[in-house]
Amino acid sequence: MCQRAFGAFYAPLVIANGLEWTHGNRRLFASSNLSQRGFCGACGTPLSLENFDDDQVEIATGTLDNPELAPPTLQINHRFACSFADRIGSLPLPGDETIAENDAWNAKIISYQKP
């Protein structure tokens, strides 16, 4: 479910105790009989996983202003991972020309998501 919700091979989440939403209002989608997923109603960014039976909220780590403050510490549901997910970090890196082209493209982007 997380792979589909995030459109990615995994969904890095961090438990957020005492969470306070500070920018806009999230929308909610009941993704199962046990939980709902929060997302930005303006841009669609996945934000949270929230269980119906408790107050625990798991926040998508990549949406934090500084994701370095919440590094992953545990793999949940690893047995459902795509067969290649563990090898992504060992894939070859692009050459300098590709990096320069990508950097130039990124420099032109004006993001309409929360900075």
SSE inventory with pairings:
Elements: H1 2-6, E1 13-15, E2 26-29, E3 35-40, E4 46-51, E5 57-60, H2 96-107
Antiparallel strand pairs: 1-5, 2-3, 3-4, 4-5
Structure described in brief:
With 115 residues, the chain is of the alpha+beta class.
Q: What's the number of helices?
A: 2
- Please state the average pLDDT score: 90
Q: What is the count of β-strands?
A: 5
* SSE string, helices as H and strands as E: HEEEEEH
Radius of gyration over alpha carbons? 17 Å
Distance between the termini: 27 Å
Poorly predicted ranges: none
Shape: globular
Sheet with most strands? 5 strands, antiparallel
Helicity, as a percent range: 10-25%
Strand content: 15-25%
Lateral strand order in the biggest sheet = 1-5-4-3-2
Broad structural category = alpha+beta
Task: Tell me what the structure shows.
The chain is an alpha+beta fold. Helix content is 15%, strand content 20%. It contains 2 helices and 5 strands; from the N terminus they run H-E-E-E-E-E-H. Strand 4 and strand 5 form a beta hairpin.
Which features characterize this protein?
115 residues, alpha+beta, 5-stranded antiparallel sheet, 2 helices, 20% strand, globular
